[in-house]
Amino acid sequence: MNNTLNKTVLTVTFILLVISSIFSQPVKVACVGNSVTYGMGIENPDERYPAQLQVMLGNEYEVRNFGHSGATLLKNGYRPYWNLPEFKDAIDFKADIVIIHLGLNDTDPRAWARYRDEFVRDYLNLIDTFKHINPDAEVMISRMTPIFTGHSRFESSTRDWYWQVQDAIEVIARVGDVELIDLHTPLHKRPDLFPDNLHPTGDGAKIIAETVYGAITGDFGGLKPASIFTSGMVLQRNKPIKFWGSANTNETVEIDFNNSKISAAVNSYDEWEIEFPSMQAGGPYNVTFSSGDKIITMNDILIGDIWLCSGQSNMEFRLNQAATASEDIKNANLPEIRLFNMKPVAYTNNVAWDTETLDKINELKYFTETEWQRTTPETAKDFSAVAYHFGKSVQEETGVPVGLILNAVGGSPAEAWIDRYTLEHHPRLVGMFRNWKNNDYINPWCRERAGQNSELSENPLQRHPYHPSYLYEAGIQDITKLNITGVIWYQGESNEQNVELHETIFPTLVESWRSSWNEDLPFYYVQLSSMAVGRETWGHFRDSQRRLMYEIPNCGMAVSSDLGDSTDVHPREKKQVGERLARWALNKTYGLNEITPSGPMFHDFYVENETVWLSFEYAEGLKTSDGEPLRSFEVAEFPGLFYPATAEIEGNVIKVRSEKVNTPRYVRYGWSSYSDGNLVNIEGLPASTFSTEY
Question: What's the whole-model pTM score?
């Protein structure tokens, strides 16, 4: 009897569901916009973003494409959307959800330059029009998809007007009380998907569709803390402790940490962020993330100091390759030092990468997923030798737990580590994007190696880690919310070909990172070493790095020219380099004034009786490293016409003269690419290359 009743109930329920599905109307979605919405350049209509959105949403939705190429939002623009047949069709559709993506064409001189003051009002009017037709309609507007540097008007007008329009759209979302969909952020770092610098490919349209799908459904795949958070991590002491990640829209994320529970709602972009008060060094702690029925627990968390360790191959250079490897590795049981080793999916060796690797690089998946690890012989041997010795010195001196994040890439030029917005808006460096393969800004070796790695790619817009902004987007952007203590940097070999250009690039890089962290982070870097073969610019470059130290606030430079290898760009003496970087941090960041941060740094000079007298910073106990007379000093009467000189130490100053120069006006030291200079201070720290010419 009960079974018969149950079957009858199930049958009736099924019939009701069928009837409901027959008579229910799908949710109508109108995609309003310009050529990006229409799908300009995408031959297969099924790959245009509204068509892909339809597949993602399924039969419960009806998605229509009302995009028109060249449409402006401005009523007084050169092709107002208001006057186009797609506008009338969109109105007649009476959509339940309206997705608007307009504004790109309003950056045209015929539109924004003349009618910008009408933009906000016209956009609000468009929103109200759709709401008037269907008072229950949900209208969502979009931050514009990107316009890249190859656009013909980029530098003359579009770049600046584009961002003025973006700012206006932010205002419209607030005033109009409508949801704002961010189509810019996920695509701004994907220039490989924009063949003409304006219109995305089908894969780019897929990213748009996925973003709109998330905005409509709120489904972003559930709770996911940012990948920097794992068991064993270090969190920065004495600064607010931030956790962030993604989850489904309208969910609440709760974090249980240090006997406190704090929750936050997920915003419409799938993002959440929770901040705990600052803490002193200590641990271990546990943290639990929960949202809905999902719970994630991480343990063995220390509170201490985090240092970002970045640059190119000499920072990447592993502990097991260093001269002191055998002793270092066996003693690398340091539980208070934690390592986050961001290894690349492929090294930039002289090989062709396979298509799978090339695809990952385009998708910005260049660094493999990793976790925080305790420092043991096994984990340390594959970690940066310079970073390891830096962290070891800091931890031993301070007693504070240290976290080291390593994301160095062999051969990488400095411009690859600068964010795209900064480069796009720099009056000189914006040119680095143009025709990269034949661009005078770029080190020829970098171009050649990128070509070798990418030779199997069929994508004319294939990206490479050496491209401007790539490594920032792949390795820096996602960790900039993490509070850190500072940065150590070892790079320069891939920018040595143009000393003057590097004098613009390097300060811009420091500015880029400090802006990203919204903090004047300490930035300690390594001066180029010594090498004899084919490095004619290195004397100039080392001196330029020295001078930059006095131009960039809150930084310091570790000298390494005494540790060079005459035939190898990768000298193996890395322990001293890490320890010299640590001296800067201990002196300047940690306030341990008793620790001398550097070897002698040229300060000033005067000439008297055919002799040049030189004074230095950090000059206590001047001497030679080998007990021999001073070497590598030169003097000149005229710029560029130098002669070898004899030099003598008198207290904490040095006197220099040459029989070939009766009226000396300039002095330089350690200028050859492979320097044999032997001036050190009482700590045995070497003097920097310098010239009084500049």
Answer: 0.93
